[in-house]
Amino acid sequence: MRRNKLKVLSSLAILGIAGLGLAACNNNTGSGTTQSPTSTPTENGGGATTPTPTPTPVPTTPSQSTTTTPNQSSTNTPEQNKIESISVSGQTKEFLPGSEFVFGGTVTKNYSDGSQVVATEEEYIVTIYTDNSYETEAENIKTAGTYYVVVSIGDKLATYEIVVREKQQTIHENAVVKGVTPTKTDISTKVDIYNQHGNEVYATANSSKKIQSEDKTATCDGIEFSQRLKMQGSAVAAGESVNVSADGTVSNGRVIVVKVAQASKLTFYGMPSSEQKRSFILTNNADYSREVASAADKTNIGSYEFDVAAGTYYFYVGATNATLGTTAGGWYFYGVDIAYDVPASSLTYSEIKVDASNVRTDFNLNDTFSTDGLVVKGKNNLGTWDILSKEDYKVTNTDDTEVSTATPGKKTLKVTAKGHSDTYDIQVINPNATIENIVVKEEAKGVYKQGEVVSLSGLVITSTDSDSVTQDIAYDAEKITYKVLDGEADVTSQFTTLTKGTYTVELTYASKTTTYNITMLEVKEGKFEYKNEVAVGSDSYASSLIVSYTDGTDADWSKYNDTILSTAEGYSTKFYSDADCTTLIDTATNAFASVGTVYMKLSYQDYSSNAITLTVKNFNSESYYTKDNLTSSSVVKNVTIFDGNLITITGGKNLGAPEGKDGICNQEVQIKLDANTDASKFKGLILNIKQKVALKLYMNCSTDKSGKTFVIKDPTGKIVFTSNDIVKNKTDNTLVEVTLEAGTYTIESITGSVRFAGIEATKAE
User: Fold this and answer.
1) Whether 237 contacts 316, CB under 8 Å
2) Which CATH number fits domain 523-617: 2.60.120, 2.60.40, 3.30.70, 1.10.287?
3) Disulfide check for 752: which of 292, 503, 660, 708 has CB 3.0–4.6 Å away?
4) Least confident segment among 24-28, 171-175, 319-323
5) pLDDT tens for residues 358-382?
C-alpha cells in the first residue's frame, strides 16, 4: 500500500473534498464506495454543488488480473472501459487506543463495462483524518474517538469511518430470587430481588393475581438458584398494558420489574409451570415491546435474551398467542442476568481464580502446550466476577519461565492477571515409559450386605511410570480389571452369596496389581414376618424376612413378594399338615384348598422359624373405616392404609393428611381426594382387588356444593365406573356401590374434591 500524502492532499483539494467527503459517507454507508465524479455538478451532503475537475493523471501499474484493460489513469485507456469507481470491503473498523492502523481490507476497481478487478497495494493510497470535512490528517490513532479514512486510486475515492475506543469489559450482575419468605405464600406486594449499581429488580402483583415463592435448587449457565417465583396464569389480558405505580404496586397482573442504568443484555431464567409453551413479554410501555415463546419444558430452566437501552422494563406472562403457538398459564421465574460493558480501565481487581476443569492438563512429551478451555475470572471493584480474556492473563511456570513439555513430570503453572495470580497443574507423560506400580488412591464401596453386587464406582488408582511420573486414573472397565479373593481363592462369581467376613479386591492395570479390602456385614438378627390367616383357595403365600446387620441397618429380603420368595437363594417356605411338621404338603394350592388349619416353617440360610399355625378361612367380607387407624396428622401419601384379604388400599403419591370431618359412624377423619390432570401429582387412592368383590364406598363432598363426582380407573387408565353426585352431609356420607373384578384400580376425583370415609367389601359370586 502506497502512502503519498502530497498527491492525496492535492487531489482532495482539487475535488473539494469537504463536500465530496460528506457525499461519500452518505452514499456509501455500508460498502465504503464512492461513485466517480462526472462533468456535471454533484450534490454534496449539504445540498451545495461542486464542479468536478479534471483529475491529475497518476501513473499506475496495470491490473494484475488482466493485460488487456490498462489502468484508468493511463492515457491509453479506452474511453469505453475505464474505472468508474472504487469500493472497499473487509476493512478493519475498530481499534484500541495506541494501536497501529491496519487497513486489512480489499480495494476493488469497478470498470465501465461492469467488470471488477482487485487493486494491488501499490495502486491505492490510504489516508486518515480527524474530521469528516477531511481537512486535518491524523498523526496517529492513539486517542479514543471517530476517525475518517479515504482510499484513493487517482481521482476515484472511497471513504469510511473507524472507531477507536477503550477496551471494554462485560459486567454480569446476577439478580436471582433468594431470601423471599415465607415460601409457598401468596405475594401481592412489592418483593425486592436486587438493587445494585443503579440496577434494580423486583416482583409485584395485585391482590387478585398473586405470585407465590418456593424453594427450588437449580443451576443454569453457571448461576446457582435456590428459590423461584411462580407467576400463575396470564399476567395481563391480551392487548392491555402493564399498570405499575411509582411505589411498585401493580393493578392488573403479576410483573417482574427491571430497571437498568445503561444499555444492557437481559437474560431471564425460568420455565413453564406445566408442559405447555408459554409466551412472555418485555416492555417499557413506550417504545420497546417484545414477546417471545418458551419451550414446553417444566423440567429444565430456559434462558431468554433481550437487548435493551437504559430504562424501566416490565416482564410478564403473555395471554394465549396463536401466532407463537403458546397458551396462557403459569411461569417459574428464577432470576435475571444483567450484562453491560464498562471501560476496562475503570475496573480494579482484588483477586483472580482459575477454572481448569475444561482445559487440557495431560500432555505427551513434546506436545504443543495449550491453554484452550482455561477460564480465568477476576473479582472487580463492583463486586462481580469477570471472565478475563486471553490478553488479560499469561501462563508461565511458577518461576515465570516459559512452559515447556520437553521433560516429563508434574508441573505447577502460574496464571497472572490484574496484579494477582493463581495456579493449576499439568502433567507431561512419556508415552514410551513403562508402568512400574499402581496404588489405590480412592477406594470404591467398601461395605456390603449379602446379596449386593460389587461396585467400583468412585475408584481411582495412581500409577507411577519409569520416569517417576504419577497419573490418577478413574475406574474404567476396559483398562482396569478386578477379582474378589477369599484368601487366595477367587470368589468373584459367588460374591452375592458370600457371608460375613473380610474379602480382598485385586485390581490389575497395565499388568500391575494392587488391592484393597471390603467387608461383608455380619447379620445380627433375622426376623420373619407373616400373616396367620389365609383365604381358602389361595395359590400362594407371601412372607418377609427382615435381616438386621451389625452396622444398625436392615434389609427386607422378601416383603410379601412371591417372586422374591421363589428366587431368593436359600429362602424356603414349606407347609405341613401336622404341628410337628413331619407330613409335607407339596404346594400352597394344596395347603389352602379347604377351610382348616395348616402349619408352616420359614427358613433362610442360618435362620429358621418354629412351626407357624395358619388358619385357612373363607373370607366373605371385610370393612375399613378411616376412623379405625387415622388421625388428622396421619401420613397417607404412598402409605398402605389397609391391607386385607380381599382388598388393599394405598394412598396416592401427593395425597394430603386426613381432615377432621363428621360422617358415617360419627367419623372423625376423612381422606380428601383432589381432582388433578397431572398424573405425577396423583391425589387419589390405589385399590388392589384380590378377588371379585362387591364394594360399598362411603364418600362425602368437600364443599357445601353438590355435583362433585369421582371415577374408578383400571391400570390402563380406562374409566370403569363414574359416580353420581356426591352430596355434602355432616351427619352421613353418600353410599356408592360397585362390583369389581380382581385387579388394581385407582379412585380419583374429576370435579372438585370428594372425601373418602370407608369401604366394605363382600366376596362376589
Assistant:
1) no
2) 2.60.40
3) 708
4) 24-28
5) 999 999 999 999 999 999 999 998 8
Q: Which amino acid is at 608?
A: S
Secondary element (H or E) of residue 26: helix 17-27
- 3-class SS string, 50-95: ECCCCCCCCCCCCCCCCCCCCCCCCCCCCCCCCEEEEEEECCCCEE
> Which candidate, 681, 691, 688, 694, places its Cα nearest to that of 745?
688
Q: Would you say the C-alpha torsion 294, 178, 218, 298 has a positive or negative sign?
A: negative
Q: Tens digits of per-residue pLDDT, 448-504? A: 887 788 999 999 999 999 999 998 999 999 999 999 999 999 999 999 888 888 999
Domain coordinates in residue numbering, the chain: 5-164, 169-345, 348-429, 435-520, 523-617, 621-763
CATH domain 435-520 topology: Immunoglobulin-like (2.60.40)
Tell me if 5-164 shares its fold with 348-429.
Answer: yes
Contact by Cβ (8 Å): 217, 259 = no
| Alpha-carbon span 538 to 540, nearest angstrom | 6
- What are the grid coordinates assigned to 683, written together? 391425589
Q: pLDDT tens digits for 391-419?
A: 899 999 999 999 999 999 999 999 999 99
Cell output for 210: 398473586
CATH fold of 348-429 reads Immunoglobulin-like (2.60.40)
Parallel/antiparallel/unpaired status of strands 156-164 and 94-95: parallel
> Which CATH number is 621-763 given?
2.60.120
